[in-house]
Each structure stands twice: as C-alpha cells, then as structure tokens.
Write a structure and sequence with these properties.
48% of the residues lie in helices and 11% in strands. It has 17 helices and twelve strands. It binds alpha-D-psicofuranose and manganese (II) ion. The site of alpha-D-psicofuranose has 10 residues, from loops.
Length: 426
Amino acid sequence: MKITQQHIEAHNQPRIAQHKKRLDFLTSEITGEREILQKLMDFQVAIPSWALGTGGTRFGRFPGGGEPRSLEEKIEDVGLLHALNRASGAISLHIPWDIPKDGKAIQELAASHGLKFDAVNSNTFQDQQNQALSYKFGSLQHVDKAVRRQAIEHNVEVIKHGVALGSESLTVWLSDGSCFPGQLNFRRAFQNTLESLQEIYAALPSHWRMFIEYKAFEPNFYSMTVGDWGQSLLYSQKLGPQAYTLVDLGHHLPNANIEQIVALLLMEGKLGGFHFNDSKYGDDDLTVGSIRPYQLFLIFNELVEGGALESAIRNPQSAIALMIDASHNVKDPLEDLLQSVEAIMIAYAQALLVDRIALNVAQLENDTVRCQELLQAAYRTDVRALVAEARLRGGGALEPIGLFREVNVRRGLIGERGERGMATGL
Ligand code: PSV
Ligand code: MN
C-alpha cells in the first residue's frame, strides 16, 4: 500500500482555494509567518514501532485488521504516515519486539520511505522466551548480580542493533521498583541501578546519547527506582554528558507541572527528549492533545522559550528527541498517529506565536493579567492553516486523515495482510 504523488495532488487540488483563503486570513492576523513556516517544515516527530498495531488493556484487545506483521511492514506504515504529513520522518524501535535481522537492508528500506532511525529502546521489563533469569524483581536494580549482568548485556546488544541502523541514542525505561513497603532497600536499589547504567553508558559510542525515562508508578505501585525527574536527573548527572532525562507526558503523578520540569531540565542541559501522549488519569497513552491541549502548548512554550527546537535544526546531534508513545485501543492506529502529530505541530506553531518580548516585560512588571492574555492569545489562534501550508510545501496532504480515508488505506492493508495479523508490542 503506497500513497503516491498523484494521490496527494488529486486530494489537494480541490481543497487549495479554501486553504488559501484560511491561510490569508491567518497571516493577516499574525507576524513572522515565514520563519514559523520554515520551522514547521523542519519539524519531525518519531513514530514508535510498537504503536502501529491495536493497543489494549489487561481486559482485552479489539484489533481492527491489517496490522503490520513484521518490521518491514511497520516501516511501510510509518512511510505512509510520512507521505501524508511529511512530519513523521523517523521510527523508534523497541528490542526485542522488533529485531532488525539485516541492519543494512532495513536501513535502506527506511531510507526509501524518507525515514531515519530514532532512539532504540531496551526492554528489561518483560521476560522473554528462553531468557535465563527473570526480571520479576527488577533488572538493573536486582539484588542478584547475575540478573543485573543479563540486563546490562541486553542493553549493550540493543546499542549494537542501533549502530547497525544508524540510530544515535538509547532510551532506557525500567519498570524496576517495589510493590510493598520494606520489599526493597531504596539506596541499594539506586546504587545497583547506577552501577548497571554506568556499564551501559561505557558501551555507548562517543556520539550517542542515553535517555533515562522516569515513571511514577506501574507496574510497581509502591516505589519506582527511576520514579520521577529528580531521580532521572540524578542518574544522568552522575553518568556524564552523554546521559539525559526523557519526559513521557503520562509518567507523572496527577496534575504535575510538566512544563516547569521541562524548563528546568532544559536550563540544566539535561532534557533529552519526549514521549508524547495524553491522559486523564494515569499513563493512559491517549492521542496527544486529546485531553489537555493547553498543557501541550505550555510545554512547547517552554521549549521555544529555551530555544530547544531551533538549536536542534542547527545541531541535530544534540537535538531533543521528539517521539510519540501512545496506544490505540479504539481508533485506527495510523489515524490516531496522524492526529497526534497534528496536535504536536499545532502546539509548536502556537508557541511560536507567543509575543516573548511583551511576555518578558509583563513578567518583570508582575502584570499577571497581561501574562495570561499573551499566552492565551497565542493558544487561541487557529493555526491549522499554517500547519497545513507547511505540509503542502513539503509535498504532503492538506488533510492527511481525509486522504487516508479517501484512498481507503486500511482496507488496502487488510487486503494485503489479512484481518488477524498482530503487531508486536505491548
Ligand atoms: C512505559 O510505560 C513506556 O512509556 C516506556 O517508554 C516503554 O518503552 C513503553 O511505554 C512501552 O510501551
Ligand atoms: Mn514512554
């Protein structure tokens, strides 16, 4: 299944006049549209290889058919997204859910779709078939050195897969922790984890980065050994300049001020990247921007304020890694991902509209009302025509989900792959 240039043109042509009308109105209301458009065109969000199939909960899973059955088909799916929106030009692999057998061939296939490899993710939160030792009581924190060794070796293996693909970062998310008070000696768990991470860090190629992802709860419900940004920052500071903190929006205690966390990590030069999603209760992994779009905007406001995304364009080696980490239980996974990328682009465009000089003045004058007015003026601007224009200039579709449905991509995928294929992942 492929989206061709003819598909895109046939879709865009009848919509172009209406689009231009919307764009003209918007650009008459704002300033700096040329720079904003360029920034939006340069902007890319990575798609996780494990989010291309239907998600589920422990109560069930209701697949919609046509799921990718192999890494090759996952790359094809991300290629479809990228052809539609021109902003999904990277894929992030989770090992061992997706083990590339022939790194070079996989890299070539990805390149043929205009895709790069983003961070590779290790997995020591599940036991795999034929695995010698269990992670039931943790991996890098484990009281048994042999379990720690196994988990370290897995991470080193993941780095090797990443090198073969041209990836340049490793994301470590640990489910390590404890379910009951007294189960774990916190300080020993921290020290064991730190020592294990030090060994993994030593195996990083010199141009690689390690992202340490924190999470407040689940699957452990009393303590998590990398439970918040403070702990993640401690590990990354102790490890050295190649280690950074990764912020997954769903991994905080309720009502945490994520934008403040982002601002401070950025200030410390330790913000490695994001896993974008949205939630109402816990780690719900819902579509980005579907529940708290204002929070998403405030996060982007901090990224723009700190110059984080602009410097990424100048220096891709140290770019903040932007990735989606969501699960699609009731939506078509590809449509859901298109919605997520769109929400991220909208938040970025709105953040670029904030009058920073005026905001700075209002802050220094303690003019709280003006501060709020300035932020909300940007947030309440309908920037969808700008985002669509960036897509159009990049060769994408004016309405990606519209074209996805017109061409009936899902029916095509079901025809090729069948109703029952199941993608690897959670
Ligand atoms: C854990 O909840 C997490 O956010 C980590 O990033 C994992 O790699 C991913 O989800 C697995 O779905
Ligand atoms: Mn995550």
